[in-house]
Specification:
- With about 220 residues, the chain is α+β, with helices and mostly antiparallel strands.
- Helices cover about 40% and strands about 15% of the residues.
- The protein contains six helices and eight strands.
- It has a three-stranded antiparallel beta sheet with strand order 3-4-5, with no helix packed on it.
- The longest helix has 19 residues.
- The radius of gyration is 18 Å and the shape is globular.
């Protein structure tokens, strides 16, 4: 199991320590969630977390919080948690400029929707709008994590947001990518060429951030 840097809020102080595979479910600014006095192996920490019988929620201090979608492949889940952590750390900085804070909050929202912790419940049959929202949020969260120099494959978006039947979602993922591209939020490429219409493009395509930078974070609502 992988290790991910975590920030835990205990009282009014944020403490950076340890690792937790489900850490994204516990980071709520300004609220005391729990205090672990001793940390062992990741499996030991997971065992200490209370889940509802159906596995859909974790329970902290008697309050339920939606669990991460368990169908997300581990490698991709880790990237989304890292993106969420980076945005959370940014929000923790003092006296943020309003424009920067807004961007960071959109990054948090995108990562949380991609992980299945916000938006429509991952265990229910999604509506077309809810499915499109998660595809868009997942695309933007992964691209934000990887940066301008790297790209993502549409299949990675589908694997996160539509597993285990992700192959059946590829057409929808391309359609959402086209909408994001038309809005100037991402670029679509095939080799060295820009793809205008991914719906008619044959062969694999890649999704990238706009050359200008992380403007692609302007998708998910607060």
């Amino acid at each position: 199991m992988s290790w991910t840097t975590a920030w835990f809020v205990v009282g009014s102080r944020a403490s950076r320590w340890g690792d937790y595979p489900l850490v994204s479910e516990y980071l709520l600014n300004g609220q005391r969630l729990f205090q672990i006095l001793q940390i062992g192996q990741p499996e030991d920490v997971v065992a200490d977390v209370e889940h509802t019988e159906d596995g859909r929620y974790i329970v902290v201090g008697g309050r339920r919080w939606r669990a991460t979608d368990p169908n997300i492949p581990e490698r991709l889940r880790k990237e989304l948690v890292q993106e969420l952590m980076a945005a959370r750390r940014g929000l923790g900085a003092a006296k943020l400029e309003p424009s920067k804070e807004d961007s960071l909050r959109r990054r948090v929202q995108n990562a949380k929707v991609a992980l299945g912790e916000r938006g429509e419940p991952w265990w229910e049959s999604p509506t077309p709008d809810g499915r499109a929202e998660r595809f868009a949020a997942t695309t933007l969260a992964l691209l934000s994590k990887r940066g301008e120099a790297k790209s993502i494959c549409p299949s990675e978006v589908a694997r996160i947001a539509a597993s285990p039947d992700w192959r059946n979602a590829m057409v929808e993922v391309r359609a959402v990518a086209k909408d994001l591209s038309d809005a100037g939020m991402i670029r679509i490429t095939q080799g060295t060429e820009t793809v205008v219409d991914p719906m008619s493009a044959s062969g694999p395509i890649r999704l990238r951030l706009p050359i200008a930078g992380l403007a692609a974070n302007n998708c998910a609502a607060e």
